[in-house]
């Protein structure tokens, strides 16, 4: 750790992270407002993670990832999750060819750089689980053969927080595989006026491809080089441990509010997301503010709320806020 030359690393990161500003500018041409959504998409992309969006219809969730795919010049596929969807509709299947008298591989829409799982909670668990191998191992098994997915690979799933009739809540094991969960809110009044004006005029700007998929893969390697001090590592572990044993961190009242805490995957995701956030801010090292900035998005879907918490209308974000305030900053 001591051998790391922070000055040289900082200069390298500042040079290599310049394209992130270009990506943000291109996405800003099409998406009005929603800066947090764009920033979190960039974090997930650079940290090699997946992102779950929760928000009302019409908040540019689909537009965001399709715009990102155009700016990266990558392949984009959309899967509309419905109750009658089958796992083969997502991953693909083996089809018998009478001409060749053998089974041929028919790859599904998951074979793309950017995959939008639209309204993922509309499909039953067996369809949702079809994404598990793809999300974790970046591969799909069809028959007795395994096929690697193209790189970079990013799954963005959306779900509606209001209409819960006829939906299937995501299992905890699948929720844990999403690096970030982002809550998308309504645009501001001025932003919505601009959206209306753009639609009235019929002039929709198109993003230009500013980077290639190969550039993103290389950027991911550089993001891993972002320096993280041992004190920051301990801080990350303390934040995650505070969701499991809140009493040890002076949060005795929280023990009955949390049914289960965040998993070790949360610590890994918090580390990777903090490094990606520092990279976007064109810094070669992670500071505690980077960890605090990404903490709610990384932890909010990994904490189980007890009946007591639900009875008191306590949200995961409120618990995370108390955890951030209780854990000592290095």
**Estimated structural class:** alpha/beta
User: CATH top level of the largest domain?
Assistant: Alpha Beta
Indicate the overall shape: globular
CATH-defined architecture of the largest domain: 3-Layer(aba) Sandwich
Please indicate the count of domains: 2
Helix content: 40-55%
- The name CATH uses for the topology of the largest domain is Rossmann fold
Ends apart, CA distance between termini: 17 Å
State the low-pLDDT regions, or none: none
Strand content: 15-25%
The value of Rg in angstroms is 21 Å
Total beta strand runs? 11
Please tell me the overall pLDDT.
87
Q: What's the helix count?
A: 15
Briefly characterize the structure.
This protein is α/β, with parallel strands linked by helices. Helices cover 46% and strands 15% of the residues. The protein folds into 2 domains: 19-201 and 209-215, Rossmann fold, CATH 3.40.50; 227-326, Magnesium chelatase subunit I, C-Terminal domain (Helicase, Ruva Protein, domain 3, Orthogonal Bundle), CATH 1.10.8.80.
């Amino acid at each position: 750790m001591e051998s790391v030359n922070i000055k040289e690393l900082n200069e390298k990161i500042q040079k290599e992270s310049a394209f992130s500003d270009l990506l943000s500018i291109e996405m800003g041409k099409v998406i009005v407002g929603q800066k947090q959504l764009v920033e979190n998409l960039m974090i997930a992309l650079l940290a090699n993670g997946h992102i779950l969006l929760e928000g009302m219809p019409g908040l540019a969730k689909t537009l965001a990832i399709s715009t990102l795919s155009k700016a990266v010049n990558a392949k984009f596929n959309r899967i509309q999750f419905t109750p009658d969807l089958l796992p083969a509709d997502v991953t693909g299947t083996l089809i018998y060819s009478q001409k060749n008298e053998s089974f041929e591989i028919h790859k599904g829409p998951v074979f793309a750089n950017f995959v939008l799982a639209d309204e993922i909670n509309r499909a039953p668990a067996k369809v949702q689980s079809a994404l598990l191998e793809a999300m974790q191992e970046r591969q799909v098994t069809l028959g007795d053969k395994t096929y690697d997915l193209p790189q970079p690979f990013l799954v963005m799933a959306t779900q509606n927080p209001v209409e819960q009739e006829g939906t299937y809540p995501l299992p905890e094991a699948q929720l844990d595989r999403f690096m970030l969960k982002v809550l998308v809110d309504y645009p501001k009044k001025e932003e919505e006026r601009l959206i209306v004006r753009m639609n009235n005029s019929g002039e929709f700007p198109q993003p230009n491809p500013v980077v290639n998929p190969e550039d993103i893969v290389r950027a991911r390697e550089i993001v891993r080089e972002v320096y993280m001090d041992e004190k920051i590592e301990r801080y990350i572990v303390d934040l995650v441990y505070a969701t499991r044993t809140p009493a040890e961190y002076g949060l005795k009242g929280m023990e009955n509010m949390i049914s289960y805490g965040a998993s070790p995957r949360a610590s890994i995701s918090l580390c990777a997301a903090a490094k990606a956030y520092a990279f976007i801010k064109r810094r070669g090292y992670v500071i505690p503010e980077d960890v605090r900035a990404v903490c709610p998005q990384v932890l909010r879907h990994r904490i189980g709320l007890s009946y007591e918490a639900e009875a008191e209308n306590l949200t995961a974000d409120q618990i995370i806020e108390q955890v951030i305030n209780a854990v000592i900053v290095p």
